[in-house]
Sequence to fold (416 residues):
Amino acid sequence: MISIPKGTKDVLPQESYKWQYVEGVARKIAKDFNLKEIRTPVFEHTELFLRGVGDTTDIVNKEMYTFKDKGDRSITLKPEGTAGVARSYIENGLSNSPMPVKMFYIIPAFRYERPQAGRLREFHQFGIEVYGSPSPDADAEVISAAALFLDRLGIKKVKLNINSIGCKTCRAQYNAALKEYLFPHLNEMCATCRERFDKNPLRILDCKEEGCKKVTAGAPRMLDYLCDDCASHFKKVQQYLTAGGIEYSIDPNIVRGLDYYTKTVFEFVSEDIGAQGTVCGGGRYDGLIEELGGNATPAVGFAVGLERLLLLMENTGAYFPADEGPDVFFAGMDEASRAKAFSFACTVRANGGSAECDHMGRSLKAQFKYADKIGAKYVIVLGESEMASGVCSAKRMADGAITELKFEDIPAFFAK
Fold:
């Protein structure tokens, strides 16, 4: 037997309705916030992620699925959604659209890392991207979309943490102060962070190694080095969140794991999914479009991992609607009535209803049991008397109530 690759997971028929529910709520959020769907390829040129995500990140250094295609081009399965959207924004001239350009995606993504609860090598994300607005109210709107999404899914015990990591101007001053603090502790840090020291010292603050975390616990805070513009922006973000009734805490240790972030960064965290407690994360990335060859364009967004989200919902007993069965099951008793059952099932489906009939040659009793197992709302038995009279009884399975129907009225009764 050929087994599933490590770090991947089948979504079985009895579980897929949960995914459809969560994705449906995501699409409703997108509609309510006037976000239009964008679909980008599942793989891109590797250079996109080297330039966009950043060559000092764990994703680029350790986790990407990269290979050469038959044309000897370096191709990478996308490890996240934003870089591909940014590439598409530039390549397709979306900068000529009315601003802001508001988009969302639901995608598979791929990272080679140790599988654990809620974190797989193939995973799925719902993300939001807003291009063109430098205003702090755009930050607050993106955060409010994430908050409303989690709330509509019945996820209550999550905490919103926010921070600002400044812009290129104030971050240069901060990086100098951070390097001065870290230099005496280089030998206490992991090899990756020693390499990051010269390339991108801010990335060290995101390290999960205990030794590095101990060192960075006393590091200078970016918030103390913000320039006037970044400080004002962060203050206004907080004012908009308060105006929107969104509770938050300031966490000066948030830097996020991708190099493209600037100014606002945020995370929704939970203690109900183990050590990897971040449910949703995002922020502003005003330099990304320019880094990828486009005109300077402010941008802000978030991404939420659907596997983690489903795990959190299951761990906290969040509501999932029942997996609905067909509107009607047609039970045939002989060859002629089975053919009629099939005919009626086709007609009901053509009129917008859902229908099922037996394909296993079951007895009438077994057909009733099967109809009950698949959650059919009604069962209609077709036998000799029904075939002769053209009238049948629709039994409602929930309470046994009977509705007499002429054959010609069946499609309309189950039409939607």
Remarks:
- DSSP finds 15 helices and 16 strands in the chain.
